[in-house]
Amino acid sequence: MAFLRELGDTGLTVSALGLGTVKIGRDQGVKYPTPFSIPDDDAVRDLLARARELGINLIDTAPAYGRSEERLGHLLREPPGLGDRFQGGRGIQRRRQPL
Fold first, then answer.
1. Around 29, how many Cα atoms within 13 Å sit in the side-chain half-sphere?
2. Hey, which of 11, 18, 25, 72 would disulfide with 67, CB 3.0 to 4.6 Å?
3. Where are the domains positioned within the chain?
């Protein structure tokens, strides 16, 4: 399927589109044309479920995104196995060969 791509030499296959998560964890000091509120956990759960339904398994997050990583870590563990359907930075690190 053209929607999935190999991620370098990691052995992972990820969706060509990723889910950006800055608005899940930070609403101060970001440059957007209009103000926004951080969504509650139910809204983020719905967003993650929809991303999964669409075949998105790549989530873009970073420390600069505020509490995004913390919230995602908690929410992806909630229904057992949900986190297994996404490819993330920590998973890539575990798969790297030792230097």
1. 5
2. 25
3. 4-95
Backbone angles phi, psi at 30, to 5 degrees: -110, 145
| Angle at the Cα of 15 from the Cα atoms of 94 and 97, rounded to 5 degrees | 20
Q: Return the structure tokens found at 61.
A: 């997050």
Q: How far is CA 93 from CA 11, 18, 39, 48, 51, in A?
A: 12, 18, 29, 22, 23
pTM score: 0.74
pLDDT digits (tens, 9 = 90+) for 19-36: 999 999 999 888 888 889
Q: Sort strands 4-6 and 13-15 into parallel, antiparallel or unpaired.
A: antiparallel
Question: In the numeric block, which tokens belong to residue 19?
Answer: 């889910």
